[in-house]
## 1
Amino acid sequence: MTRYADPLACPDCHAVLPVNPTRCPSCDLPLTHPLAAELLRTLTYADHLLAQLRANAAPLPAYPVPAPRPAPVPAPRRTGVRTASVPKILLGLGATCLLVAAVIFLAVAWSWLGVGGRTAVLVTLTVATGVLGGWLGGRGLRVAGESLTVVALGLLVLDVVGADHAGWLGDLTQDGLVLAVGGVVAAVSLALALTPPRLVAPQVATTVGLGLGVAAAVQLTTSDLVVLGAGVLAFTALAAVGRLAALAALPWLAFTGATVTWIAFTTNAASNLEAAGSLTFGTVWAAGPGWALLAATGMLLLPVGFDRRRETVVSCAAAAASLLSITLTLPGYDESLTVATLVALGLVAGWAAGSYAAPADWAVIAKVPATLAAVPVAFVAFVMSAGAAGRVLLAESTRRTDHLANPALLVPSVAALLLVCAMWLTLPQVRRLWPVAAGSLAAAAVATLALYPVPLWILVTAIGVLGAALVIDALRRTATVGTTEALLGVGVLGTALVAGRPSDLLMTLVLAATTAAAAAMAFRGRFPSASSLGDLLLPVAGAALLWSSFELADVETVQRAVPVLLAVGLLAIARPRVELEASAMLAGAAAAAASVLSADDSATALAIHLTVAGALVTATAVVHQSRRDFAWLGGFLLALATWVRLADLGVETPEAYTLPTAVALVLVGLDRMRRDPTASTSMAVAPGLVLPTVPSLLWVVATDPVSLRAALLGVACLALVLAGTMLRWSAPLVTGAAVGAVLVLRELAPYVAQTPQWVVIGLAGTLLTVVGVTWERRLVELRHASAFVGRLR
């Protein structure tokens, strides 16, 4: 039996304990602590309980193992037609067959049956199927009742057609027959729909019959608007009847028919307006369809009589208000665009006032027509803004041009659009967005100014003031909106720069304002990304300002880039940030390229600019610890300047280009190894060793391998190998060995072609023999090892 308490073993790791232990020699568990004694007592009591449990344990009775239950047989997957669909299919097919049979009877038996026989047969079949359908529907067989009712209604159509063929209805035209069929079907179907069990088929037939009647009546009369208006009212009354009778489908079907008829009514009225040619008071109201549009407006309120919920009332009232505002102002839209815009502005102002005066729950009734009236206002504002932007970009603001609308309407139009937006926002949202509204109005005022033939300096000043104001307002903000406002301000200043490009003075002033804005954002901005945005813009704006100032002072183009390079370079040294350094590099490169391309002696100009750029980059690396890696770029620019200058002087030896820079690189690398004992030679001195050796090697390989240059290069490679071996430096050893090996092989090349072929064959045979011997030797050693292993016991 298992024991829990063992005084000779550690209770934790179960290691054997020595005599009178104080700690476990294996796990260092303290054994003299009071808790150890308490643990021993607890484990001893556990052994006592385990012994009692073993003594009182009784064998469990054996129960027969139940037999495994068979797995349930999966139910077969349904693949056929649903049971409920079978009678629908059968009854639908039966109704179709009955109707086809009735049509055939009407076509074939009509000639040999008398009038009485024909009448008796059709009426009997119609009444019988109708009564039987209602009876079956009342007994719970609704599918059968619907089917037979459809057959009865179809026979009813045949009855009316037969009566017309018999001449009982007079000399009806085709439209008249359709009107008669529609009226009879609608009346009979409505009676059947109101009779229990209130089947759906008569409700559908009622709506279809009324629709056929209205369509036929439109064709039979010249008063289309009167008929269509009466049709809307008839469908509305039908919906009311269905609602009062608690019919399921008739109200919705009638509402659909009323909607279609109302659309036809309104479209017909609009077509009559178009046929009038011009929208005047007389053509709209005196002799025109103005009354129809007012009636259509009133018809939009008809659903309120059936549904008094707030959503329905608000929707219908908003739609009616929108159509009413358009109807009342129709004559104004046929005038000039200025008059039409004034009319739309009046509507926006009126409905906006109504929305603020109405209770909050009903204000949307005025907001919807105000928003619709703002659509033409937005179009006019967009057209005029696009025209102003085009005049600014093309520098045509001083020219007089004709506009579609009066430019003075641009600011009111923007104000109206802002008013409409404010209607749909809450008061806190409006308060937060008031700077956007103020900026929009200011931009609209500037655009209005651009639409008039004003002097260029006035327009540029206005645009510049707007951009500066946006930047100044953005400086005091701490939220993200400040970033957006600053970007807009910079964009507006760029627009002022484009507008003022015909004048060097205006461009200089705008660039001065842009540079000041960039400096303010870089050093004083509090909004997110203010310093980054300012650092990106400041070098470019400053360089452009200097260039424009030189242009204003008639300084030659070739002399402008050096001051620009010095300015942006010193700025990058004073403020070592990645954004500013990248922008300064682009601005300096653009200025240098422009100066070099305009110089008569482009090589000398290129060497000067490369020298200045290299000195500035190297100075950055010297001044700032974090920019030490820039020393490589600075050295490369200086070396490139030297190469350009030497090439301009006619020097063709590569060592004149590479040795000065190589010496400088080696000295820099040695200094780094002196300061950092852990620095590797491959990173410190390898660039300085590769720079003078590889170009000379390429020159030797490409031109004359037997020359003084080749000899000196070989001596240098030997010196590098010996120095690397003695100093245990990998860079000179690898460089000297690699370059020396290529040089030796190139020295051997002229003599390879003069070697006899037997020498080549002999060398190949020797190589193959050595390889074969080595291979066989390895096989013998493998056999000996296998035999030795096999003799082991």
## 2
Amino acid sequence: MLVSYKWLKELVPELTASSAELEQKMSTSGIEVEGVTSPMEGLSKLVVGEILSSEDIPETHLHITQVNVGADEPLQIVCGAPNVRVGMKAIVALVGARIADNYKIKKGKIRGVESLGMLCALDEIGIDEKINPMKHEEGIFEMPADAKVGDSIFPYLDMDDEIIELSITPNRADALSMHGAAWEVGAIYGLPVKLEEKSLTESSVNAADKVSVKVDTDKVPTYKIRLIKGVKIAKSPQWLQNRLMNAGVKPINNVVDVTNYVLMAFGQPLHSFDFDQFGSDEIVVRQAKTDEKITTLDHIERELTPEDIVITANGTPVALGGVMGGADSEITDETTTVALESALFDGTSIRKTSQKFALRSEASSRFEKGVNQGTVREALDFAAAMIVELAGGEVLSGVVESNDYQPALPKVSITLSRVNGALGTDLSLETVEKIFVQLGFGVQVDGENFICEIPSRRWDISIEADLVEEVARIYGYDNLPSTLPVSQNAGELTAMQKFRRKVRSELEAAGLDEVIGYSLVTPEKATEFVGELETTTLMMPMTEDRQTLRATMIPGLLDIVNYNQNRKNADVALYEIGNIFWPNPEDIRPLEIPHLAFALSGHLVDKTYRSKAVPVDFYATKGIVENLLAAYEEVKFIPSANQPGMHPGRTAMVEINGRQAGFVGQIHPATAKKYDIAPTYVATLNLQVMQEEMPAQTVFHDIPKVQAVERDIALLIDATISHAEVVSVIESSKVKTLQKVELFDIYQGEKLPEGKKSMAYRLTFQPVENSMTDEQIASAVNKITKNLVNQLAAEIR
């Protein structure tokens, strides 16, 4: 909502606060101010000039003009506008002036003719095309005839105004009008509000004899029409055009501009029809019929459905109720009789229609959020009187309406002790009563009880808590006492929060950076790495890319890897801790499962003058997982060739104490190509399983007093046997002194039998008290090798 400071001061005459002070005060009182701007900002040396003479340059569209700008001598200015004429007053940018886009005017020659300035159109001084009443090709802007030569143009065009942009939340739609903003400012500063009034004179002809109204839907509480005959369509006076442009509305003509002016002033949408184009004396408001069509004012034909509200004449839609009028009945230069509409439409219905057709108008926006139901007739009468002032004609007697609808004014009660108890204040009865009076509420005081009659313009107030909020914001949030919460117990982290912090620290110690991805993804990405799974999808997502709750975090990480690598950041190490969403067999709501996922791509070590680059591989990725799970009793990595989206030969499932916790491996090359990323390795782990299986405490072991002993063994085994199986057999031999098993060599080639491979292990024995004898070492090694031979058919080399 754009609020003109000049207009606001007319409505609150005693207002002395500057726009900057007003910005701060309103922002701390419940209505956020986005900022304050001025149309003249960045412009300079623009004055009123009068064209004394105009001479055409042969064989061009240019004119040599002599322009009086109040100086001793007229200025010679070359101009190509088609509407230049002698006696015309125009906008003159002097030499050194700044116009739109910070363009500086300099002396120059055009076709060899010296030009000492520029005659300007509105767009050339920064008036946006959306609100500019003139097209550029129409020529320069003509200033009012009473504009004084040499004066600055800014006061004449109200460009010296200050525009306050309000960010209106849905609960404060009452401020979507100048009257609403004025009441708000008046309440904040305790100042009286003076609203503009107009006297309406009606003719002796009865409007009900010319037209009738019938409402055939429960979505329209009231519908009212006034008829104005003998109007003359023309441009609006400059003050009205200025006021509309400063409010962000494009001037059209005197009738349409009045409806827009009343919309901005009252917040009540109006619509003007060319009554002679109706072809009927009966207006019917109803729900649209299936396949019914209308061509709206933007000259687009739209196919309607029964959920749309239409205004019809002779059975044909002439307007899309509350959204936009029809092209067949719009006001044109030939219009002489105006049918002026003021109504209430159901906000939900209007929202659905405007959303369906992508038609967001000032009118639909207000019907969606709510309008003052008490001023529907007042706004209509004001507009009718104003049209007669600006366009002539006469208003036919009476309002033709579906009913004489008047909203019931609610009464809300509250006690002084309740106000003070809720705010922690010690306000007096008089102070609270004064605040309610400032707000324009009707107040009755019975002891310490306030009975407030709420005006129709504040339809957001209906319960006791609303009154508490009003007292708080008018009294001033910064004036409320501040106290610390009283509690016997200090807050602490939950077990999962503590666990997440521990995991986060370990990952960052490994060199990974944390990212936060989107929980909503496409349906395809939601289950890309988990296979077929029932997902949860939003009924009305903001975008198609964000509609389904993720069942895995890996696609989001791959998108981030792609984003980085496309920007020449090839080496990526990222992790995310968050929730994934799996179907809940016991509830419609999904299960939220805390998960960890990380991705590595590029190089572990960059190339230097003395060493080669070391690329990321499976073992580096697996090593990070092993470090995370180092404290767990039993961790297994089981090869998997069936994990969706993963490389079948470089992927392993992770088990913790027999429970599946996730997987680690390389993204399938086809998947990597789809995401347009380099070879990437990922891992994902279920934090809930990790937390539940984590040892309750760390067991201390004495530091050995004697030296460790190492022995190497080499095995010839089947190529299908994994390293994990060999280690499992070695550890199951239950040699108490065995502390470490390390694979240091593996070979598979032409010198070995087909289907065989050689693996060499280093076994580390570490007794606690006494050194091991040769016999004890040999016995331990024999026990291990015997199990390897028996269980894996290994050949000891």
